[in-house]
Design brief:
The chain is α/β, with parallel strands linked by helices and 366 residues long. The protein has two domains: 165 residues, Rossmann fold; 166 residues, Rossmann fold, CATH 3.40.50. Helices cover 39% and strands 16% of the residues. It is built from eleven helices and 13 strands. It has a seven-stranded parallel β-sheet, sandwiched between helices. It is globular and about 65 Å long.
Length: 366
């Protein structure tokens, strides 16, 4: 089957997501192409993914390039030249609604992933997401979401059930070569459980960093256990925490390389996602892959990925007291964390099979 993926943003996370699907579809025998921007992270993609980069973009579209009709036309002509049987738009861009509509008019089936049904707190121009999404809902043949809660919401909005498909979000954070090497060297056993918890990713308003630091400060002052908290990722922490960092908190305030991320996930004992306004996150899958339990807030689709007390902890968002209690439970029982981590890996392996089957069935349905 000729599959064409379209991702016009250079956003790293969207390429990680796209590469995970495109690489696996190419490996399973499909003829896979990608139409994207010239500043993509090429090392995420397998050599057998046919990459076309007719434009150079700087974001999701709210920039001068979005007014360049010539670039838009180049994208459209590139897609059409590939004669795809299905086009899958894997991430947002301001041009997508017009491209989707044009492809539908010429009879090319379109699948569009919707990552955010509603915008995150603190995002610029977030109000534009609603009309953009509506245009996609109206013109795409099928919509793919990664939370069952979002499938229900779209059905309540009136979309037919056969047009909205759910699969779990399970991609990892590594380059193609690193992931291939990892899969070939027994990743299930090459892990440790050192006494530190990991918050990984960009420091942003919706991720609840201030509540995490407040809770950890309460926890670390009440227990003598030598558990640390590592915050690893770029962003301006001073927007959310003006005080001196609590003892036993290590800040790695930079873009984390694949090598360092791999080291952190292999060695930590618990991965933290105390988000106050989440959609979903692939970090849960990454934690489970390395046999590490997670702590998540009851926000968006995050609870769908966690069996409370079995693969991790679920807490209320924006509530430092309950968060501190969960952190205390983790600190006091390291052996339980190991059991939870193994259960998480089992959950990941089962869901990976479900995801693969649903994606193959989804493409074949067009």
């Amino acid at each position: 089957m000729r599959l064409c993926y379209v991702l016009l943003s250079p956003t790293f996370g969207m390429h990680q997501y796209t590469a995970d699907i495109a690489n696996r579809m190419a490996r399973s025998g499909h003829q896979v192409s990608l139409v994207t921007t010239a500043n993509l992270p090429r090392d995420r993609y397998a050599p057998d993914v046919d990459i076309h980069a007719p434009v150079l973009t700087s974001g999701t579209g709210l920039s001068p390039h979005s007014l360049d009709r010539g670039q838009y036309q180049s994208v459209l002509e590139t897609i059409l030249s590939l004669r795809p049987q299905v086009v899958h738009f894997t991430g947002p861009h301001i041009w997508n609604p017009w491209l989707v509509r044009h492809l539908r008019e010429v009879g090319i089936p379109v699948l569009h992933t919707i990552h955010d049904v509603a915008p995150h707190q603190g995002r610029r121009f977030s109000f534009l997401l609603y009309p953009w999404n509506r245009a996609i809902y109206r013109n795409a043949d099928k919509i793919l979401v990664h939370g069952q809660i979002y499938r229900r919401q779209l059905l309540e909005m009136g979309l037919p059930g056969d047009r909205v498909v759910y699969t779990p979000l399970l991609h990892l954070f590594l380059s193609y070569e690193m992931l291939a090497g990892l899969n070939g060297h027994g990743s299930q056993t090459d892990v440790e459980f050192e006494p530190f918890m990991l918050f990984f990713g960009r420091l942003e308003a919706y991720k609840g960093v201030e509540y995490l630091l407040t809770a950890f400060n309460q926890t670390s002052s009440a227990y003598s256990a030598d558990f640390r908290l590592v915050l690893a990722g770029p962003g301006d922490l001073s927007k959310y925490w003006v005080q001196t960092l609590p003892p036993k908190v290590e800040l790695r305030n930079q873009l984390i390389s694949d090598e360092d991320a791999l080291d952190l996930f292999r060695r930590c004992s618990l991965v933290l996602l105390p988000y106050i306004d989440a959609t979903q996150s692939a970090l849960i899958a990454s934690a489970y892959f390395f046999q590490k339990p997670v702590l998540v807030s009851r926000s968006g689709a995050l609870p769908e990925y966690v069996k409370d007390g079995e693969t991790g902890f679920i807490v209320e968002p924006g509530h430092p007291t309950t968060l501190a209690r969960a952190l205390s439970a983790a600190i006091c029982d390291p052996q339980r964390l190991r059991h939870m981590g193994r259960a998480g890996r089992q959950w990941y392996d089962r869901q990976r099979l479900v995801e693969e089957e649903r994606l193959q069935t989804l493409y074949a349905s067009f």
